[in-house]
Amino acid sequence: MLQEPVEMQIINGAPLEVQWNDAHHAQGVNGREWLPEHPVDALVLTERVPLDPAMEYHDTLGYAARWVALARQSNPAVRPYLYQTWDYIEAGPTGPWRDRILADLPKWQAIVDHVNMDLPQGAEPMRLIPVGLGMVRLHDAASAGEVPGATSIRDFFRDDIHPTEAGGFYYIAMIHYAALTGKSPVGLTNQIPGGGGPYPRVPKEQAEVLQQLAWQTVQEFAGH
């Protein structure tokens, strides 16, 4: 799956509403035009953070439903997903950041539940990719000294919100792999492809732990 073709529409920092209305200005494909003509197996959406103002002022629920309906035009059996992210890490202790991720989970789930209202016959329901919960698990494991080469969640971020190209992106990819395939990422390669070429290799011992944490996250969420 790590080598499967992927198309993206990117407007950095934009809510789903802007992604919809300004799709012609996006990096990558114009999803408004592309999706109805190109059936995809899976559609992954996310929303801008902080989540509260995005939901209040940019109709997250409505635009998430629009994007999924658009993808179903070319493939009624498309599997839609919502990528749960995280908020900014402030200076000082990282515990409040961890707790905000948990507090925001019902809001992410509310988006999924709205999209799944009045599900068309035979359509796949939207599912959550619990990357935010994965960050909570990684936060706790790193703090406990259980992640080789890391002592803090900050070791996986290059600033207050963007992950590192090595361990951070790698961990996110492992969670996506587990959520989209239902398979364990344990045993996969320790280097993933990127748009501009492969990302840096993750040290083997660290990659193994990240794979395990990713699989634990997805399994636990699926059984919640």
What does this structure look like?
The protein has 224 residues and is mainly α. It has 2 domains: 129 residues; 94 residues, no CATH class. The chain has 8 helices and 5 strands, in the order βαβαβααβαβααα. The strands form 2 sheets. Strands 3-4-5 form a 3-stranded parallel beta sheet, with helices on both faces. Strands 1-2 form a two-stranded antiparallel sheet. α5 links the parallel β4 and β5. The longest helix has 21 residues. The radius of gyration is 17 Å and the shape is globular. The two termini are 26 Å apart. The mean pLDDT is 97.
Core attributes:
3-stranded parallel beta sheet, 224 residues, globular, 5 strands
Query: Helix count?
Result: 8
Strand order of the largest sheet: 3-4-5
Strand content: 5-15%
How confident overall, as mean pLDDT? 97
pLDDT < 50 runs, ≥5 residues: none
- Assign a percent range to the helix content: 40-55%
Largest sheet: 3 strands, parallel
Task: Tell me the distance between the termini.
Answer: 26 Å
Number of domains: 2
- The number of E-state strands comes to 5
Instruction: Please provide the ordered H/E string of secondary-structure elements.
Output: EHEHEHHEHEHHH
Please state the CA-atom Rg, rounded to the nearest Å: 17 Å
3D shape: globular
Structural class: mainly alpha
